[in-house]
Amino acid sequence: MTAMGDPYRSYRRTQVETADQASLLLMLYSGALKFLKLAKKALEDDDIEETNHQLGRAQDVLCELMSSLNPDLPDISGSLFQLYEYMHYQLVQANINKDVAMVEEVEKMLNSLLEAWQAAVKQEKAAAAPEPGTEKTTTDQKG
After folding, report:
1. CA distances (Å), 23 to each of 72, 95, 100, 129, in order?
2. Which of 58, 66, 75, 85 has its Cβ near the most Cβ atoms within 10 Å?
3. Residues in contact with 42: Cβ distance below 8 Å, sequence separation at least 6, in sequence order
4. Closest CA to 90 of 61, 48, 55
5. What is the pLDDT of residues 32-42, one digit of tens each?
6. What is the pTM of this model?
């Protein structure tokens, strides 16, 4: 490993360790999409080993997403679990059959979920932000 790789890895590790749950979720989706893009490229290049590696990484992300679902929200968690499980299965089949269309199907689904979560996070942050003009000021009131 090069010396340049160590600081980057440390930075990424720190980024993950200090991120809130919403940011981690968005990172997982983004990572899975990156792996799918690399898998499609490897499929186009007929690089079976790299295809297998990248699809496996995307499957690992889906497993992480499945294991991190909140059981206190059974309706949402159950639906997401089924969706993640379906995507995982599609990627296994895509790897077996070397089928780029199956990878693209999962990619489209993950993009839709990423966009929905990004909108939800943005809405939550907007709701948590103070209204303009209602912030407390710390200026000295003495004249």
Report:
1. 20, 29, 29, 17
2. 58
3. 48, 50, 51, 53, 54
4. 55
5. 999 999 999 99
6. 0.76
Domain range annotation of the chain: 21-118
**How much is the pLDDT for 134?**
62
Among residues 34, 30, 10, which one has the least CA distance to residue 22? 30
Specify the 3-state DSSP secondary structure of 69. coil
pLDDT, residue 12, reads 47
Type of residue at 137: T
* pLDDT attached to residue 21: 85
> Could you give the CA distance from residue 139 to residue 123 in angstroms, rounded to a whole number?
31
What is the CATH class of 21-118?
Answer: mainly alpha
b/e burial code for range 34-62 (CB count within 10 A of at least 16 → b)? ebbebbbebbeeeeeeebeebbebbbebb
* Alpha-carbon 17 to chain mean position: 15
Contact 35, 61 (CB under 8 A): yes
Torsion sign (Cα): 8, 43, 103, 107: positive
